[in-house]
Amino acid sequence: MGTCHISGEIDSAVRLSRSDFEYIKAIGRGALGLVWRVVHKKTRTELAIKEIEKNSISSKEALLSVLNERSLLSILNHPFIININFAFQDKKKLYLGLDLKLGGDLRYHMIKRKRTESEMKFIIACILQGLEYLHSRHIIHKDIKPENIIYDDKGYVFITDFGTSTIWKEENYSETSGTPGYMAPEVICRQNYSFTSDYFALGVILYENIIGTRPYQGRNRKEIREAILEKQAKIIPSDIPVDWSIEAVSFCNKLLKRKPNTRLGANGINELKSHPWLNEISEKMLQNFELKAPFIPSDNDNFDHDHVNFYSKCERHQAKTTKHDFLGYSFIPSPASNRKIN
């Protein structure tokens, strides 16, 4: 699919509606709705639409997450994140138009098998491109996990889901939303945190693919917190699989440091990018999408359609929102913003 500046083709004065799009199939599922592959009927541009049912937003926290994602995406635009193309609403749903990537999420592919070292090296190099941009805008993602890493059809990956992301501030110990299994110790223990919390989550993903389990496990946030406080997770030499290198394990262990000031990246993201494990990745070629990915998703569906059935059966809560909560949600970037669908 070629590049298309959809924001320049859709008149900002025109009110978008669901009927402007041809729905092809579901390609993802979020906490509050499905992500669909669609075609804009007028321009014939393919993209993704994330639908959120208003009556599924049953708490203030969920409402803030939805509004936060729309607000942050409107000021972001980078090749290694899933960018916004527009947003609109009707009486029942919110609609978020996003870049279309058809390779499925990292979790889907990890369920099939653990990633190889070369695959994880490439994946993390891609994620670092996105994180470097976000951190340069003073934004902490706060929910880096396999479900939020999306493949395209060439094997490159992109960061998505900015519902819990936040603009960094010195006093943020009370803002602890995210996924417990990937939360940095300083976040789960309700201490002030910074950009290194995203690097810890990277370490969890890498550990998961080397060892096969997450470094800190538990049935809930309390149990995971207790596991973190009990001991420092570390891959020891005798546990290194035969097809993984010492450099990969070094990178992982340094990301998992419980104290953020000793964690790889404490002095900036260049500590990660310059680690020997990533030496063979040409950053310039990566940025230009000139490298061949070690894993390319198949042309078949890269989404478990049982997710659609699961979502359709989920219990609906009575809405605790009003129409006034969504004032200003609709959004179409100006052509000057140069947003595009690849």
How many H/I helices? 11
Rg, please? Answer: 20 Å
How many strand elements?
9
* Sheet with the most strands: spatial strand order: 1-2-3-5-4
CATH class annotation of the largest domain: Mainly Alpha
CATH domain topology of the largest domain: Transferase(Phosphotransferase), domain 1
For the residues shown, what is the average pLDDT? 89
Following the backbone from N to C, one meets helices and strands in this order, namely HEEEHEEHHEEEEHHHHHHH
Structural class: alpha+beta
Shape descriptor: globular
> What is the helix content?
25-40%
CATH architecture verdict of the largest domain: Orthogonal Bundle
Number of domains: 2
**Please, what is the CATH homologous superfamily of the largest domain?**
Transferase(Phosphotransferase) domain 1
Low-confidence stretches: 1-5, 309-316, 338-342
**Main sheet record:** 5 strands, antiparallel
State the end-to-end CA separation: 7 Å
Bin the strand percentage.
Answer: 5-15%
